[in-house]
Amino acid sequence: MDFSIPDEYRELVATFRSFLDRQVRPVEDQYRTLLQEDELTPEMKDAGLALRRASTQAEFYAAHMPESVGGSGLSNLGYTLLVEEGGKSGLRFASFVLGPPNPEAPTPILMELPQHLHAKYIEPLVCGLRRPCASR
Predict the structure, then answer these.
(1) What is the pTM of this model?
(2) 28: left (phi over 0), alpha (psi -120 to 50) or beta
(3) Which domains are assigned to the chain?
(4) DSSP secondary structure string for all residues of 37-98
(5) pLDDT per residue over 19-37, tens digit each?
(6) Is 56 within 8 Å of 72 (Cβ atoms)?
(7) How far is C-alpha 91 from the chain's CA centre?
(8) Which of 16, 46, 62, 132 could make an SS bond with 126 (beta carbons 3.0 to 4.6 A apart)?
(9) Residue numbers of the chain with a pLDDT score lower than 50
(10) What is the distance between the alpha carbons of residues 82 and 71, in angstroms, rounded to a whole number?
(11) Where in the chain does DSSP place strands (E)?
C-alpha cells in the first residue's frame, strides 16, 4: 500500500501555504500584541471575517463540502492536509480560513437537510457568511 501524498495534494498545500503567507500573515502581524494578550477585538473579528471571504474566493474555505452545495468536494485527506498546514503555520488567524463544520467531513445532520432548507442554512455556511453554532 502506498501512503505517499499525491502530487495534486502537495500542490494544493503549497498553494494554501502561499495564501497563508500573503493573506493571513500580514493580519496576524498587525494584531500580534493583542494576540499575545489573548484579546479578540471587534476589529480583529472583522479582519478574520475578511480573511474568510478571501479564503472563500480562493476556494479553500469549505473545500471539503460537496460540490452540490458550493464546496469543492475535496477528500478528507486533502482537507486534513490543509488543516495541518494551517496548524503548522502557527498563525491563529488561520482558523478563520478553513471550515465548516470541521475536517471530518460534512455532518449528516447538515447534509440531510431537506433541499428547500439548503439556501437558508448550508449555502451561507459554505460561502462563509455564517458559522456553525452561531447566532449570526
Answers:
(1) 0.82
(2) alpha
(3) 7-126 (1.10.540.10)
(4) TT---HHHHHHHHHHHHHHHHTT-TTTTS-GGGTS----HHHHHHHHHHHHHHT-GGGGGSS
(5) 999 999 999 999 999 998 9
(6) no
(7) 13
(8) 62
(9) 104, 135-136
(10) 15
(11) none
